[in-house]
Amino acid sequence: MLEQEKKEFMPPDLEARLRQMFPNLTWVEAPLEEDQWHALLREKKPEIILCAWETPPLPLEAAEHLKYLCFLCGSIRKLVPRDLIEGGLKVTNWGATISNTVAECSLLLILAALRRVGNWSVAMRTEGKWKSGRHPDTLSLFGRRVGLHGLGAISRDLVKLLRPFDVQISAYSPSVPEETFNALDIRRCETLEDLFSTSDVLVELAPGKPANHHLVGDDLLKLLPEQAVFVNLGRGMVVDEDALVRASKRGLHIGLDVYEHEPLPVDSPLRGLDNITLLPHLGGPTPDRRRDCGELCLENLEAYLNDKPLTNLIDLSTYDRAS
């Protein structure tokens, strides 16, 4: 990994524990060219690899010696060929370790959209503007109806953060059992139409699987009530961004951290909207909280050495659902 990644994911106290666990650890600083990477794998023949974002893809021949890949970050689709997992390679990632920080960022964008932070921060800095009169177009989160499209770990952490605001929470997530809805005390929506039409704040957290491509378009966005807020911290490909631009012109306030194409193109019409708050995909763990992923990694490495179950183990079904 990069030296910066090591500082964030494996600060000195965690690195010390890692080196105690593996006295003969080989440290490799990224970036590496693919041919260098392949040559290094042939030379070292590692049983375990601990790595982060800047790791080149694994070659299929790594299956000859590699038994466990402990990935400190999220999606492993570009790093690990499916055949390796099918062949028995154990792979873990940061899993739900980051759900609290993504939920925190979701709350930030909800509040920013309701208070029109995107509008006012630009207008005050670049146009010298100030509010006109005592009736600004701003809203509070207290008492609102919040809809969650998806009820995974991030949504469940967001529910906890929303509780102090005395909101009414609904969710659409067909695969989640009734017991989870009951335990969280939230309303189950049987259709997306029900979710969108009854949500003052709609938080998009559905997975980025092919079946969800542009699932959220004009038909659903038109169902959102007047003065509604739409926030996306899930996957950009789930939302038709052209439809989102059209909805903004009807008064929808928007908060986005993810986009269909990243980095967001300079000429994207989203950049020109007044009623929008944009973040450049910052929802994941902030650098000061990446040590949480490192601590989970150490727990998994110790479990692997003691032949115990691994947390966030990626099987074929998880791999196929990943973005």
Provide structural commentary.
This protein is an alpha/beta fold and 323 residues long. It has 2 domains: 3-94 and 287-321, NAD(P)-binding Rossmann-like Domain (Rossmann fold), CATH 3.40.50.720; 98-278, 3-Layer(aba) Sandwich (Rossmann fold), CATH 3.40.50. 36% of the residues lie in helices and 12% in strands. It has helices at 3-9, 12-21, 34-44, 82-86, 99-114, 117-126, 153-162, 178-184, 192-197, 218-221, 241-249, 291-305, 316-321; strands spanning 48-51, 68-71, 90-92, 145-149, 168-172, 187-188, 201-204, 229-232, 253-256, 276-278. The strands form 2 sheets. The protein has a 7-stranded parallel beta sheet. Strands 1-2-3 form a 3-stranded parallel beta sheet, covered by helices on one side. The chain starts with a helix and ends with a helix. 34% of the residues are buried.
Structural class estimated from helices and strands = alpha/beta
Number of helices: 13
The major sheet is characterized as:
7 strands, parallel
Q: Please state the average pLDDT score.
A: 96
Q: Please bin the fraction of helical residues.
A: 25-40%
Tell me the name of the CATH homologous superfamily of the largest domain: NAD(P)-binding Rossmann-like Domain
* Coarse shape: elongated
Top-tier CATH class of the largest domain:
Alpha Beta
Poorly predicted runs are none
* Rg of Cα set: 22 Å
